[in-house]
Structure formats: structure tokens, C-alpha cells
Amino acid sequence: MSTYTATDKSKVTTRTLAEMKARGEKIACITAYDYTIASLVDAAGIDFILVGDSAANVMLGHSTTIPITLDEMIVYAKGVVRGAKRAFVVVDMPFGTVTADVNTSLKNAIRVIQQSGGEAVKIEGGSEIAPAIEAILAAGIPVVGHLGLTPQSVNVFGGYAVRAKEEEEAARLIADAKMLDSLGCCAIVLEKVPSALAAEVARSVKAPIIGIGAGNGVDGQILVVQDMLGMNRGFKPKFLRHYGNLGDLIEQSVNSYVGDVKTVDFPSATECY
Ligand code: KIV
Hints:
Oligomer: single chain
Helix content: 40-55%
Structural class: alpha/beta
Number of strands: 8
Distance between the termini: 44 Å
Order of helices and strands: HEHEHHEHEHEHHEHEEHH
Number of helices: 11
Strand content: 5-15%
Bound molecules: 3-methyl-2-oxobutanoic acid
Largest sheet: 8 strands, parallel, barrel
């Protein structure tokens, strides 16, 4: 594990992401859902914060991302936007908010950007929603695509297994990535696909490819912040590296506090007015 000192403190924009890909600098991305964590990851030098609909899982305790609403996403995003000074802030469009219905999709994307202050939206899906993505881009909203394992389609896929292992799905994924790139998406998330395929996609498109479980031949990486900090105990897919053990730390710290309250050790004389 390494330490990183940022030299460029200027605001990350869509242009920065394109420049980073052009010069081969990897893009470090993470999720966040509140002001405090956004401030901390921003200070740590993260380039790109995603207010992911994984908030459904890690903030609200749902078993899939499907139940989270646009209003809930906007509340989380508002806090993140206030905490992020340098990072590019992207807000996920939740399940059912971007579909073949172009007008409703556009209205939803405009509402997210206007009400949250986020700089871009992320949208799961490919050719089936191309007209909606085109309209959102035409309205001046940067779009991050999301292909491969798109968790909003878990009930179609029948689980969270690696996608595009077969030739036909891999070819469709490459075609979708090229389509999103030609529409003008500022980045594309590729989730849980074979590394060789992800690297091929990254070589084939201008948009930076941000991987999660997609190997290191892509242009950047993203992880869910609670997962990489070890707060989501018991969740350890192959692609995840733990950078901390905050789950145990929080439990032990709060347990010490409980003990101190019960034994009247806290507050001490120096902690009283
Ligand atoms: O919602 C999310 O956190 C995501 C990332 C896993 C890419 O979509």
C-alpha cells in the first residue's frame, strides 16, 4: 500500500478526466454519501466521488439498489457536494429514473443536478437508453455510463456474477461502450467483467474507463467507501482490497465508551464545566 501526495489541487472537471486518460494517469474514484466522508476522501486526494445508488445497501440496509428513490439520492448528494472541494462529483440515477421515456428521464436528470449541485449523472445501461442519454447530454449534463454488472438489473441477471464472459455479451458490451463514447459520455464505469475485455474497451474508446472488478488495464478504479474501509464486515468479493478495519475500530471504540459511561469513568473532572 502506498502514500500519495497530490501536486495538482485544482478542481477536477470532465476536461481533467480526459487529460488524465490522455497522459496515462490513473483516476482514483470512491463512493461517498455524506458531507463528513466526502470532506475526508477529498482531502485524501480522490479525483472522482460517486454518490452511488449503493447508498440503498450501505446507508439504508436494502438488499439491492432497486428501492432507493431520486429524493433520497438528492439528499445524500447535497452533503457530498458541500464536502468535496476538488473532486468531480457524480450522482447515480436510481432504478427506473432513466428509461426509454426520454422526457421523464431528462426531467429526472435535470432535477438531480439542479437540486443536488452534482456535476454529472451516472446511468446504468446501453443501447436501450441511448436516446435518453443523448437528450441528457444535449441539456448540458455530463453523463458517466455504467456497463457490465449493472446492479439495477440484478433480477434480470439472476444475481451478481461476473458479466460478459461469453463472446456474445462481450461483443454487445464493446458496442455499447463505443456507443456511449460516441454520444460523449465523460467516463464509463465497467463493473465485474473479465480484465482482458475491460482493457480492450479502455483501448477502444476515448472516455476514461473506471473499473470495479475489471482489472488494472482500465483508466481508473472505484470502490464503495464502506467496503474498502472494512465497515461492511463479511463482504469480501475477490476484487475488494481492505484499506482499513473501521468496522472493528468503531465497534471497539463505542464498546469502550459504553463501558466508561456505565462505570461513570466518563465524563471525568476535566471533561465537566
Ligand atoms: O452505486 C455504486 O456504488 C456504483 C459503484 C459500485 C460503481 O455504481
